[in-house]
Amino acid sequence: MKVHSLKCNKWLIAALAIAGAAVLTTVVVADESYDELQSRLDAAEAKIASLTAPSHMDIQRAEATKAIIADVLADADYRTMMQGQAEKNPVTVNVHGFAQFRWSYNDTKMTGVDETHGFSVPRVRLILEGDIYDWSYRVSGQWNDGGAFDLKDAYADWNGFRFGQFKSPFMREVLTAQVDTLAAERSIVAHEFGQGRSQGIQYGHDFGSGFKVTGAYTDGFNSANGAGVQNGYALTGRVDWDAANWLDVGFAGSHNNLNTTSYNTWTADAAINWKALAFTASYTATSGDIGDSWGAVLNAAYTMDKWEPFVQYERGSLDGSTEDLSVATFGVNYYFNKNVKWTTDLGYALNSIDAGWRLGDTGWNTTTEDGEYLLRTQLQIQF
């Protein structure tokens, strides 16, 4: 029994020794594998860090990009300020204008005088306007077809007052902006009796309910850029009443004392808008040293999408003229968009046109015979 027990103990001891050696070997190998894996992991992290870290060139590019963005934002702020959208800036400037390109054909109906036709650029106007603190201003100049540049508007507004060079508050057709005229050009009657631009002071007040009164003291009608006579003046007043959403009426009167001549003139007008139809009518008369004369203009227009066909008739009489003015015009406007308008009209003179009428840029010629006709087509671009 003792011999058998001893042998068993020897085998047990041997098994335990072998198991211990195996465990020790596994631990050593595990330690070596862990160290190797840790080394590989550290190397991989270093590689990743080297790949993701910005290079010197990347840093320079980032700084350059930041500088460009800062410049763009600064420029945008400046443009916003100049266009009057920055609340903190008290001085603003808005630059815009328009250009008109025209082709016309005129059959004079005069013996020995050929018809006239060709292209022209009646107007290229540049307009600057904006605010100066609680004042507003407008300055505009125009290149005419001959290349001459003339000052048009040059005034400042404050609390109902207007100072400088502007249109006196008289004839509605003249007060309507050039870009908004129905035909390619204002009527002959407007050129004859219209107030043009003057230098002086004006005050207007809106009483509410569509009732407005405006008065002006100036150097006289059409006295822009010093064209008035020495010591000449005009007192002009206008009343406008927007009687309803479809009716607008006005009345104006003026006394012009031009030192050597003195005359009075008055005008009445009405505008009716009913759905797509628009009607306007005006009557103007003068009396005094320049004689008793009068002129009337009737317009009718119909708006359908981008098209606007219209008809106009004007009639008038000048003191001393042998025959009354009588001109009918038919035309159409086409609006490509709110900034581009194409106008084509055909006018026919039922009577001869006396040399006393101021024709301006209308394209009409004075004649001794009736039957003169005028074709105009014009492209207008606002910018």
Can you offer a commentary on this structure?
By secondary structure, the chain is of the alpha+beta class. The chain folds into 2 domains: 2-53; 94-382, Porin, CATH 2.40.160.10. The protein is 23% helix and 47% strand. It is built from 4 helices and 16 strands. A 16-stranded antiparallel barrel has the order 1-2-3-4-5-6-7-8-9-10-11-12-13-14-15-16. It is elongated, with a radius of gyration of 42 Å. The chain starts with a helix and ends with a strand. Mean pLDDT is 87; it is low at 1-9 and 19-32.
Summarize the topology:
Blueprint: H1 2-52, H2 56-82, E1 94-107, E2 116-132, E3 135-143, E4 149-158, E5 161-167, H3 172-175, H4 188-193, E6 197-208, E7 211-218, E8 233-244, E9 247-257, E10 262-274, E11 277-288, E12 293-302, E13 307-317, E14 325-337, E15 340-349, E16 373-382
Antiparallel strand pairs: 1-2, 1-16, 2-3, 3-4, 4-5, 5-6, 6-7, 7-8, 8-9, 9-10, 10-11, 11-12, 12-13, 13-14, 14-15, 15-16
